[in-house]
Design goal:
7 strands, alpha/beta, TIM Barrel, about 190 residues
């Protein structure tokens, strides 16, 4: 069986989808027996991205994941921006202070949301970027409207917000950028900067 490292893994969403309340990777993998075995790989490690405030992990959860070779990032998915409250930002800030949390994300802009929400998304992105520490990897989410194939949108506003919140090029550190142009799998671009 081939080995693999998953660099963008929503273990909380997977558990919810499988109706399992666990972060035990072996249990999650065992419950997916209906999968085509020819596509299976041995997961050597992963980056677990928690961006849904309702499923934020506890420090105990983060340490359990770490014991399985999974590192953790925490963020605020842009589709949740209108529901972000000061307590949510406080919790995010607290988790980012845990040495076991390696990054901020995913955060960003999602222009499949109604246009009226875009300004709130930019504000939440700017707030989240203010919590970014020098040791954190940054995981950015960037999704445009499916019908609008204009180059750069919403990448230009995303980079503009990031540029004004992250002072100086020397502060712009490891970054994982996910750009979704459509729901079609072949049009998801991942890059690092």
């Amino acid at each position: 069986m081939k080995g693999a490292f998953d660099s963008h893994f929503h273990i909380d969403r997977l558990g919810r989808e499988l109706r399992l309340a666990t972060y035990n990777l072996r249990e999650l993998q065992g419950s997916a027996q209906s999968m085509d075995q020819s596509n299976c790989v041995h997961l050597c490690g992963a980056v677990a991205n928690f961006c849904d405030p309702i499923t934020y992990p506890s420090l105990e959860d983060v340490n359990f994941l770490k014991s399985q070779g999974i590192v953790t990032t925490v963020g605020l998915h842009p589709r949740h921006a209108t529901g972000v409250r000061p307590a949510t930002v406080d919790k995010l800030q607290e988790m980012l202070q845990w040495p076991e949390v390696v990054g901020l994300g995913e955060i960003g802009l999602d222009h499949t949301a109604p246009m009226e929400e875009w300004a709130v998304q930019r504000d939440v992105l700017a707030t989240a970027l203010g919590l970014l520490g020098p040791r954190h990897v940054l995981v950015l989410h960037c999704r445009g409207r499916h019908e609008a194939r204009v180059f750069g949108a919403p990448r230009i506003p995303l980079l503009s917000v990031c540029g004004s919140c992250v002072k100086g090029a020397e502060d712009f550190r490891k970054c994982s950028l996910w750009i979704y142009q459509s729901r079609r799998k072949e049009e998801v671009y991942h890059g690092t900067c």
